[in-house]
Specification:
alpha+beta, 6 helices, 34% helix, two-stranded antiparallel ribbon
Length: 132
C-alpha cells in the first residue's frame, strides 16, 4: 500500500511524524536523531523533520524508502491488530525497512519472532492502515 494513503502516527500538535525524528538518519547514521524545524517536508498528511537539507532532499526523492512501516505505529501492536504509539528511539531496520515499537519491553517480545510478527502485521496493515 502506498504510504500516501496510509495513516501516519503523528503528534497531536504540529502533525509531526516520528515525533520530529529524522527518518533518513536511521539509515545513514544508524541512530535516532531529532530533526530540525528548518528542514521540514510534508508527506502523507504529516510533517517530517530532518537534520539537514541533504536528508530532507533524500526523503523527498524517495519517501517510501524511509517512512517507517505501519505509519510509525508500534510494529508489534499492528501484529496484534492494535494501534500503539511508536517510540522513535525504539527501532530496528529489517530487510531495509524501518520499524518502531512502543517501548523496550515490547521490543524484546517483538525480537523473539520478528519475521512472524512482521508477517502478521503485514497481513493486518492493509485494512488497518488505510485512511478512511
Amino acid at each position: 500500500m502506498s504510504q500516501t494513503n496510509t495513516k501516519i502516527n503523528k503528534t497531536t500538535f504540529g502533525d509531526l511524524a516520528l515525533k520530529g525524528y529524522d527518518p533518513v538518519a536511521y539509515f545513514t547514521e544508524g541512530k535516532a536523531v531529532e530533526g530540525r524545524k528548518e528542514f521540514t517536508h510534508d508527506y502523507a498528511n504529516a510533517k517530517w523533520r530532518f537534520t539537514s537539507a541533504t536528508n530532507r532532499d533524500r526523503f523527498a526523492t524517495d519517501p517510501e524508502k524511509y517512512v517507517p512501516q505501519y505509519g510509525g505505529y508500534c510494529a508489534w501492536g499492528i501484529s496484534q491488530e492494535k494501534f500503539y504509539d511508536g517510540d522513535p528511539q525504539v527501532w530496528k531496520i529489517v530487510d531495509g525497512k524501518l520499524y518502531v515499537n512502543y517501548n523496550k519491553e515490547i521490543e524484546k517480545t517483538w525480537e523473539k519472532d520478528k519475521p512472524g510478527f512482521i508477517a502478521k502485521a503485514d497481513g493486518h496493515w492493509p485494512t488497518m492502515g488505510h485512511l478512511s
